[in-house]
Specification:
The complex is a heterodimer. Chain A is an alpha/beta fold. Chain A is 45% helix and 12% strand. Chain A is elongated, with a radius of gyration of 40 Å. Chain B is α/β, with parallel strands linked by helices. Classes of the chains: A alpha/beta, B alpha/beta. At the A-B interface, α3, α7, α8, α14 and α16 of A face α2, β3, α3, β5 and α5 of B. Bound molecules: iron/sulfur cluster.
């Protein structure tokens, strides 16, 4: 940026670095505000105790990342030599001071990037509420979601459901609202949902809806303000009605003006003194459109219904949020606001955060919403000049273009006028433009002085123009206006292609390849342009232009998703059958569909008779598809839906039908969306899923160089290009519908009116608010144009279309177009063009498209997988007992095992039946400790006691548990069988008096009904292979195996033949129970 | 850990474990215990043994539990406190919060309770809890103090303890006889002992046990750094790297560390599977990597549906949920009856309201067109019966558990499809969960069905489950579980400057300054940095090859390497020797031979008499493909549940209303002669009748207060409309809702007309009611492809004396006729063609006009008869906008254009 040129506003820039003062800085396009912010940040860093004391707020995450990176760059550069240019030298010196501070206080900032608190305001709110779960009244931090549309609808639905709830206090209000809406429930739901989305406008932190007095008061205030403005125009000597008497003012206007707003000539001419004031006639005429400042009863009834419902709807929304553990940003910022200020006064952040915020820097302050403004006020509450705490607001009201995201440019204007909350701010305005060549800067200065109004006005959203001074010199032709006539879309598109081609050939900044951007106001305006670019062979990166859901590959995946989700979704099934991977012809489709017009095609697909009726080609295609989808259907609801769809897509050869790598990106994006939307392997709502898909964009062309980009002006904010082409300035924007209610936030209140229920007569209050809203929108259009034009470094092309009179003269473009805003500046370009008739483009009827499909199943080589087979056996499972009571049985087994172990440890010395009976309470406690519910406790304890009593009285039991040689209990060993490791717990291992080695396993199974012996035989059969395997691994082929069943006093034994081969582990059905039981008496 | 304990080298440790002297090894986590055991077992196996005593290696907390468990058997009853299960802890915290002064205000007390549990654990681990500090605390910490006091009292009263306090509790039991004490103790892989752990170790020391410390042997590592444009690229290379290392040494131990494992679990699994096992998707088999991270039970379809069935036993559930359950494979016979159930569901969606009760579900599922889902209906009615018998009132948890279990049995859960191994494990876990739920009764009172369901759901959400995985050569780990492990190759991903060192995240319920002073990791930036430096250093010694990596962008933000790894040398992919392995999709891409076939016409229709009315012509005019799809292939959309009545149902009501009204009135003369009271009661009666007609299908919506409101609306609309009719010249109604077969171009359909009147001069007028403004438009009759040819078709078929045709726009606030007549004055505001708007470019003569209509309609009939199915929407995107056939006709494949709509944002 150091150009060896004097910077016109160097003094102001230096002043902005005073760490003791608070500022609000207007930084027009290209004024290098990021550098200024960095410098300010560095200055502050050198003064604080902890880096966390400075909070910097950016508009996007991206900007936060950039700012942080710039700070670190500066710190890194500060270790190097001091640069030449004065501007850079400042940064260098500031950064050195920070390094010194860091060393002094041991921050180790460069190792700990997160200590720089540079974040979006949303992230700041999250970090505040997370540390203050009680004060924010969240309890626990919810997940923040960008798009809560579905949740608003859910809450709206829940609200309306109160209609049918007996005695619900909201029911009457709902009835009122619905009858206002002709009982149209979806419409009511939509209305409430949209009000919930902007509830921060409606309900202030307290959650109460505005009442009639407040609403009428605000209306009166706005009217009075405009009357005051008229009053200010009036020459002295006239008796004026008070500001709040609209009717009197109207009478005054009627007395002096004719119906159409001209000064009256008769009966008595308007006083000459008035006539002499320019603009007074218009101003007075406008007074006649001011509404009455009271609602009619009918209006109030409708308004009252909705305003009374809102708190209820908000409460329902909170419930929805809670159920899902989610919240939108409105909720989170309101919680943050709550947390920052309790009844006792401002919260001490030191206790919650371990530091206090001492300095706030806010970037893009022009795009602040009222909620955010409130948050900033709370954060700075009590700050006073000179107390070492400062606020630094940077932005450019001329670039405020985010009304649709609740940005209110009036907040900037107000803060510049009288500070923010308790903090007074010194206003500064930057002038230097470091971006564009002088030719562009001069043109912009001249043009926008006309486009933008002469004075600021918060209510109508007017922002006056602040000129820039170019730092760069002139550099060849700068701005060119291209005129087109009578909807010459094709001509405009062709010209764009030509201009782009030329521009790409020209050298770019610092000899980099030249960059070109085509910027439009709305995506719809690209309709005539994109085909021309394609026709000219130009590849481009369309950033967030094409809907993801429009891409064929995505539509096919969507059909597959729908088909696998619902067998009766006929359109989806037909689509799957028609997609390239199958490609059935109409004739076969009709046979397949058959007579029963509601039968799921699934049945028909699998019907051999149907199959036989198809053409040979159809049979082959269908058979292939049926195989894949049957498999997918069999495994439905096992894993994620995404995997099922992706698997089916691969198996059908979907990717084989795709050639463009961009399609893979899009497929992936779709599948990711699917994954994010599914719940437990299914889509909770197909509509919500598709709506969400509608909000996603296809990936930009991967094969295109980044030098040519197509995007909306909003998207281009903050970017710059060598050449900027602004086509379709003459296009009329989509008109917004008249909503059932209209509302508008103004300083300290809101304006609100319902549409006239009959829909016939225009309502003055409604119209007044609508006009105000229109005027805000129009002012924003001017700013949008400013943003667009100032993206250009060296060349700017403006293209527009206007109608002509039959004589060939250009007509003034329609109101609402961007061209109309520029008209005074560019009309000469239109006037100069001769009136040769340009033909509007005749749309040739396109040939109906062919069906594209696989000619034959794709052949390709399946890549080899990494060859691997696991070294352990899959643990087989015990047959599942179909009840949670199975758990009690298992715990009984564990407790019995433990007692048997104890008894065996003592070789039964000191154990008798009485001792076991005495142990009942302990047993009950142990069962309880293992989670056996009280309800089960008694019978479970009985079973344990019974098993132990049996073991101690039974001769076999006494033999097993009694004194034996080399006895081990609960012996833990690891064995290796066929190279596979298993860990076992052997209940009892001993040598008996005859010298036989025994491995005994306790079984607590009981057996009801007859044939106990048969049961025991089967159990033995079941466990023998497994036990034999272990015995072999333990090195003894002579080991005898025993199963002991204390509950039934059962015993089975098996002495393996010496040469028994060990069976393969894990293959047989038998080992299951054993392995499970062997493990399960470990405490979990 | 500073060298306060004697160090034991790794090899010596393995020796000690093999010696049989009773060495117990404690590790900070399960992963490390497994790793050490596997080292030990391998050494044993290598020495040729077939079996050996299992080494006693376990995580610290498992050791604590073991001592507790032994004490339970060794000590007399009552001395050893029982431990609360996590669900019981949660319930007690919830109770503590609910009873406090903050209770009511919190948005999510349940979530707060689980945070409290965490704070409670932390406070005990770091000795901050005894007693909880009272100073320097903000409101949040004070609230926690209050809750903790209540919670502690509740546990004391019940003589129970919890996991957080267990280590302290068991210290006292260590010297008791019957409680096993380790002969030798080794602390393996600890970077840090919490004060609580230290106390326990000290208690062991007091018993004469001399703890020693050990860790995995440090390796001399080749460390390098990689940076990638995107996370996707990063992962593509990691997967290829893992595969390359495995290919060259199949026995290699490979570790991949992922800082945000919980969020990227699915993505990581997918990328690794794609590269390591690019097989045909239907080929199942084990994956050579493991990733230990469970999902909440409720995220498994089987459990979700079990919970759904239980919810269905309560009040109403969302229709979408009922629909899912109807189609669930986990509801008895769900697989066998899948198709019939899908069909039943399609019918259900057309009739049900947005929420539905079990009873209505049973009723509506029975009204299917075609084969019935008999088993489904049985299950639903059995379940409804069970519900009436057992799902009401307040009961203790164990009774609910029993009832839930029974309800599922009645519903035929888990269905007729055979369970695979992970579903078996899941079912096991689910039963465990019900068992845990039953055990809640020890701390909670009786609850209602809804509360029981909600609790069970929450427990399911918080119970993590993962099907058992096999030990695999590649391990994917989170940061904490990676600490101390040794590998041959180790890759640490995602080390951006934002992610590493971890930002400080102190626990909000404990005073931050206190946490900082106690040295709790990550409670403060400096502590974070210190710990994460140590972890980084640990990684760099943990394997022979170590690679660290990061992406340079995330979404839109630019990122840099973490400062903790920035000093490592950058390597290229070539230097790391990572080849590219193709994934299946890449191998497939573009391999298909695609052909283009012209398939714009189907065969001639078999029958020339078509059902479905004049909409066939309407659709044919809009787009031949649409007509073919809808009228020959029956390509219908599934109904989407909507609040209230759908637009067409609202229309039906108005139609019915006017039908009833006019059937009763009959002529204008009668209309004007009606006494006001007479008129009102006639209107009321018609409205009641109209509602009754629709209620047959939509009983769930048309009831209660809404029904009364609809009644009023209909009366008001009809009253207004009769005003318009009263302003006409005399007429007599001769037909309402009449259906006539009409034939054009050989194609016969049934035309339906809302009303036909005879004027005084004998001329007839045909009328079609429209309840929307935009739709009542005579332009819809004209041109070669008329948008709405119903009235002209009817008129043409009815012969000469139809003199006027009109839409009756029955719209509050804008009631009027709109149409064409032979002569002016036949209907208010209805003009002859020569007086109609110039823009319509109508023929001036009535006869010419009707001839034009006939030509157009016959043309459409001809198209349909020819099997015309061209994808050719009449007005491009506008025609397609609301058409449901888009995926079927594949219009998007033929035109890639930006969207028409959409504002700039
Ligand atoms: S979407 Fe368009 S092209 Fe496809 S069938 Fe419908 S109207 Fe025809």
């Amino acid at each position: 940026m150091s150009l060896g040129v004097t910077i016109p506003d160097a003094g102001d820039r230096r002043r902005a670095l005073d760490p003791r003062r608070s500022f609000i800085v207007q930084a027009p396009a290209g004024s290098g505000k990021t550098e200024l912010l960095i410098q300010r940040y560095l200055v502050l860093l050198a003064t604080v105790e902890r880096p966390e004391e400075i909070a910097a707020i950016t508009f996007t995450r991206k900007a936060a990342g950039e700012m942080r990176a710039r700070v670190f760059e500066a710190l890194a550069a500060a270790r190097g030599p001091r640069p030449e240019g004065a501007h850079h030298a400042i940064t260098h010196d500031l950064a050195r001071a920070v390094l010194a501070r860091d060393a002094e206080l041991g921050w180790r900032l460069e190792e700990n990037a997160s200590r720089l608190k540079v974040q979006t305001i949303d992230a700041l709110c999250v970090s505040l509420t997370r540390q203050m779960p009680v004060l924010s009244r969240f309890g626990a931090q919810p997940e923040s979601i960008d798009d809560a549309t579905a949740l608003y609808a859910e809450a709206a639905r829940a609200t309306l459901a109160a209609l049918e709830v007996e005695g619900d206090s909201a029911a009457d209000g709902i009835e009122h609202l619905l009858s206002h809406l002709d009982n149209n429930v979806p419409m009511a739901e939509g209305l409430i949902a949209s009000l919930l989305a902007s509830r921060d406008h409606w309900l202030h932190a307290v959650g109460a809806a505005p009442d009639r007095a407040a609403l009428e008061g605000t209306l009166l205030r706005v009217c009075a303000a405009s009357l005051r403005q008229v009053g200010a125009l009036m020459p002295p000597g006239f008796a004026l009605p008070p500001d709040d008497d609209v009717a009197a003012w109207k009478a005054l206007a009627d007395g002096w003006l004719t119906k159409d707003g001209k000064w009256r000539k008769k009966p008595a001419p308007a006083p000459a003194a008035l006539q002499a004031v320019t603009g007074l006639d218009e101003a007075l005429h406008a007074v006649r459109e001011l509404p009455d400042t009271c609602y009619t009863e009918l209006q109030w009834e409708a308004l009252n219904a909705i305003t009374r419902l809102m708190p209820r709807a908000t409460a329902e929304l909170k419930l929805v949020f809670e159920r899902r553990g989610q919240a939108d940003f409105v909720e989170i910022s309101q919680a943050a606001i709550r947390a920052l200020h309790t009844d006792e006064g401002p919260t001490d952040l030191l206790l919650a955060l371990d530091y206090r915020i001492r300095h706030l820097l806010v970037d893009e302050f022009q795009d602040t919403s009222y909620t955010q403004e409130e948050l900033l006020k709370r954060l700075t509450s009590g700050w006073e000049e000179g107390d070492g705490r400062t606020l630094f607001l940077v932005g450019d009201p001329m670039q405020s273009i985010y009304r649709f995201r609740q940005a209110e440019v009036g907040i900037f204007l107000a803060a510049r006028g009288h500070g923010l909350g308790s903090v007074s701010l010194e206003p500064l305005t930057l002038r230097a433009n470091f971006r564009s060549q002088a030719g562009i800067v001069e043109w912009v200065n001249a043009a926008f002085a006309n486009v933008m109004p002469g004075a600021d006005d918060a209510t109508s959203g007017a922002v006056s123009y602040a000129p820039s001074a170019a730092v760069h010199p002139h550099g060849g032709p700068a701005v060119e206006v291209h005129a087109f006539y009578d909807d010459d879309l094709a001509g405009e598109g062709q010209r764009v292609a030509v201009l782009v081609r030329e521009a790409l050939a020209a050298p770019g900044k610092d000899d980099a390849p030249s960059t070109v951007a085509i910027l439009v106001r709305s995506r719809a305006h690209l309709v005539g342009i994109v085909p021309q670019l394609r026709a000219a062979g130009l590849r481009f990166q369309a950033v967030e232009i094409e809907g993801l859901g429009q891409r064929p590959v995505v539509q096919d995946l969507l059909s597959l998703t729908r088909a696998l989700s619902h067998l009766a979704d006929r359109i989806a099934w037909l689509a799957v059958l028609r997609a390239p991977w199958c490609g059935l012809l109409l004739r076969d489709l009709e046979i397949l569909v058959g007579e029963d017009r509601r039968a799921p095609l699934w049945d028909r697909i699998h019907d051999p008779e149907v199959h036989a009726a198809l053409t040979g080609d159809g049979q082959r295609r269908l058979a292939r598809l049926a195989g894949v989808l049957s498999h997918a259907w069999e495994g439905r609801a096992r894993g994620s839906l995404r995997d099922a769809v992706e698997g089916a897509w691969l198996a059908l050869g979907g990717p084989a039908c795709v050639t463009d790598p961009t399609d893979f990106e899009d497929a992936e994006a779709y599948l990711d969306h699917l994954e994010a939307s599914e719940e437990a392997g299914r889509l909770p709502s197909l509509e919500a899923f598709e709506a969400g898909l509608g909000r996603l964009f296809a990936a930009p062309d991967l094969a295109a160089a980044p030098t040519l980009q197509v995007m909306t002006v909003h998207r281009a904010k903050g970017l710059e290009f060598d050449t900027v082409v602004l086509p379709r300035l003459g296009a009329t924007p989509k008109r917004d519908d008249r909503g059932l209610f209209i509302w508008l936030e103004v300083a300290h209140g809101m304006l609100l009116a319902p549409m006239n229920p009959s829909g016939s007569e225009a309502d003055p209050i409604y119209e007044f608010i609508r006009k105000l809203d229109r005027s805000r929108a129009e002012h924003e259009d001017g700013r949008l144009l400013y943003v667009a034009a100032t993206r250009a470094r060296s060349r700017l092309h403006l293209m527009g279309d206007c109608r002509r009179t039959p004589e060939g003269a250009a007509k003034e473009p329609a109101r609402g177009t961007l061209l109309a805003r520029l008209w005074p500046t560019v009309c000469h370009a239109f006037a100069q063009v001769p009136a040769a008739a340009a033909r509007p483009l005749a749309a040739a009827a396109p040939r109906p498209p062919d069906l594209e499909r696989l000619a034959a199943p794709p052949t390709f080589e399946i890549p080899a997988p990494f060859a691997w087979s696991p070294a352990q056996a899959d643990r087989a499972r015990e047959a599942i007992e179909f009840s949670w009571a199975g758990r009690a049985a298992r715990e009984v087994g564990s407790v019995v095992h433990r007692w048997l172990q104890h008894m065996a440890d003592d070789a039964l010395r000191g154990w008798d039946s009485a001792r076991i009976t005495r142990s009942r309470p302990a047993i009950a406690q142990q069962l309880a400790a293992r989670g056996v519910a009280d309800a089960e406790a008694l019978s479970a304890t009985d079973r344990v006691v019974a098993a132990l009593q049996a073991a101690i009285t039974d001769a076999k039991g006494r033999w097993i548990l009694g004194p034996q040689l080399e006895a081990r209990n609960e012996q833990r060993i690891t064995v290796r069988i066929d190279g596979v490791l298993r860990q076992l717990v052997i209940d009892r291992n001993f040598r008996d008096a005859e010298g036989r080695r025994w491995i005994v396993d306790y079984k607590t199974s009981s057996h009801e009904g007859g044939d106990l012996e048969g049961f025991l035989d089967r159990e033995l059969e079941r466990y023998t292979p497994q036990l034999t395997g272990y015995a072999t691994a333990l090195g003894g082929t002579h080991i005898s195996l025993g199963l002991y069943f204390p509950l039934v006093k059962g015993w089975r034994e098996n002495t393996p033949p010496a040469a028994a081969a060990s069976p393969a582990p894990g293959k047989s059905a038998g080992p299951a129970q054993l392995s499970l039981e062997l493990f399960d008496h470990l405490p979990k | 850990m500073e060298r306060e304990f004697a160090e034991l080298a790794h090899g010596e440790l393995l020796g000690a474990l093999a010696s049989g002297e009773g060495t117990t090894v404690l590790t900070p986590n399960r992963r490390l215990a497994q790793a050490l055991r596997s080292d030990f077992d391998q050494a044993q196996a290598a020495s040729g043994r077939a079996s050996w005593p299992t080494a006693d290696i376990l995580p610290f907390d498992a050791f604590v539990r073991r001592v507790w468990d032994e004490a339970l058997y060794a000590l007399p009853g009552g001395r050893v406190p029982l431990m609360l299960s996590p669900a019981q802890e949660q319930a007690l915290w919830e109770e503590a919060i609910a009873g406090s002064r903050h209770g009511g205000a919190l948005a999510s007390p349940a979530a707060a309770a689980s945070h409290c549990r965490r704070a409670w654990t932390l406070a005990h681990a770091w000795n901050l809890a005894d007693p909880l500090p009272r100073h320097e605390s903000g409101e949040d910490a004070q609230a926690f103090n209050e809750w903790a006091a209540r919670y502690a009292r509740a546990t004391r009263e019940r003589g129970m303890t919890d996991e957080a306090r267990l280590a302290g509790v068991v210290a006292a039991f260590l010297q008791e006889p019957g409680v096993n004490r380790p002969a030798h103790l080794v602390l393996y892989g600890f970077d840090l002992l919490t004060p609580q752990q230290r106390s326990l170790v000290e208690a062991l020391q007091a018993l004469g046990i001399v703890p020693r410390a050990s860790r995995a042997p440090a390796r001399e590592a080749r460390a390098s750094r990689r940076s990638f444009a995107t996370t996707r690229e990063e992962w593509e290379e990691i997967a290829c790297w893992a595969r390359a290392r495995l290919e060259s040494n199949p026995g290699a131990r490979i570790g991949i560390v992922v800082p945000d494992l919980a969020q990227s679990r699915e993505r990581v699994t997918r990328v690794l599977a794609r590269v390591l096992r690019p097989v045909h998707p239907m080929e199942k088999g084990p994956l050579p990597f493991d990733l230990s991270l469970g999902l909440g039970l409720d995220r498994y379809p089987m459990v979700a549906d079990a919970l759904g069935i239980l919810r269905l036993c309560g009040r109403e559930v969302a229709l979408e949920e009922a629909s899912r359950l109807v189609r669930s494979p986990f509801l008895g016979a769900g697989q066998a009856e899948a198709s019939a159930r899908a069909r039943a569901d399609a019918a259900l969606r057309e009739r049900a309201a947005l929420t539905i009760s079990l009873e209505s579900l049973g009723r509506l599922a029975a009204v299917s067109h075609g084969p019935r889902a008999a088993s489904l209906l049985d299950r639903l009615s059995d379940l409804a019966e069970f519900r009436r018998a057992s799902m009401f009132g307040a009961k203790p948890a164990s009774e609910w558990a029993r009832a839930f279990s029974e309800a599922l049995r009645v519903a035929g859960f888990p269905g007729d499809r055979s369970l695979d191994s992970s579903e078996m494990q899941l079912l096991d876990k689910w039963h465990d969960l019900l068992g845990d739920f039953a055990a809640l009764e020890r701390v909670t009172g009786k609850m209602k069905h809804s509360e029981a369901c909600a609790r069970l759901e929450r427990m399911a959400r918080e119970t993590l489950f993962q099907a058992e995985a096999l030990e695999a050569p590649v391990r994917v780990l989170g940061i904490l579980e990676s600490a101390g492990l040794a590998f041959d190759h180790l890759w640490i991903s995602g080390l951006t400057d934002e992610a590493w060192p971890l930002p400080a995240r102190p626990n909000p319920f404990l005073p931050v300054a206190l946490q900082r002073r106690a040295g709790i990791p990550h409670s403060d930036a400096a502590l974070s940095l210190e710990l994460d430096r140590r972890l980084t250093a640990g990684w760099l010694r943990a394997a022979g090859e170590v690679v660290v990596s990061h992406a340079r962008t995330h979404q839109e933000s630019e990122l840099a390497a973490s400062p903790l790894i920035a000093h490592l040398p950058q390597a290229t992919r070539e230097e790391l020797a990572v080849p590219a392995y193709p994934t299946l999709r890449e191998a497939m891409r573009g391999t298909a031979k695609l052909e283009r076939v012209t398939d714009t016409h189907g065969p001639e229709p078999a029958s020339l008499v078509r059902s479905g009315g004049t909409s066939l012509f309407k659709d044919q005019a809009a787009c031949p493909f649409r007509a073919f799809a809808q009228h020959r292939l029956a390509a219908r959309e599934l109904a989407a549940p909507q609040p209230g009545l759908a637009a067409h149902e609202r229309g039906t009501l108005v139609h019915e209303m006017l039908r009833g009204t006019w059937e009763a009135i009959g002529s204008r003369a009668r209309l004007v002669a009606l006494a006001p009271g007479e008129k009102e009661s006639l209107l009321e009666a018609s409205a009641t009748a109209a509602i009754a007609v629709l209620r047959r299908r939509r009983a769930d919506v048309l009831s209660g207060r809404f029904e009364r409101m609809e009644q009023r609306r209909l009366v008001a609309i009809a009253r207004d409309w009769l005003e318009v009719e009263a302003g006409r010249t005399d007429f007599e109604m001769i037909a309402v809702e009449r259906k006539t077969p009409v034939t054009f171009g050989g194609l016969t359909v049934e035309a339906r007309i809302d009303r036909e009147d005879r004027l005084a001069d004998g001329g007839r007028v045909v009328i079609d009611y429209k309840t929307g403004k935009a739709r009542a438009n005579i332009a819809a009759w004209g041109g070669p492809r008329p948008d709405d040819p119903q009235l002209p078709m009817y008129a043409l078929a009815s012969g000469e004396d139809v003199r006027a045709l009109a839409f009756a726009q029955v719209l509050p606030g804008a009631m009027q006729f709109c149409g064409l007549a032979m002569e002016a004055g036949m209907l208010p505001k209805v003009t002859p063609p020569d007086k109609a708007s110039k823009r319509l470019a109508l023929p001036q003569e009535w006869a010419a006009l009707t001839a034009q209509w006939r030509r157009a309609i016959e043309g459409l009939a001809g198209e349909f008869r020819a099997g015309d199915a061209r994808v050719s929407p009449k007005s491009g995107a506008k025609t397609c906008e609301l058409c449901a056939q888009k995926p079927f006709c594949r219009i998007a494949a033929s035109a890639r254009m930006p969207e028409e709509a959409g504002e700039a944002e």
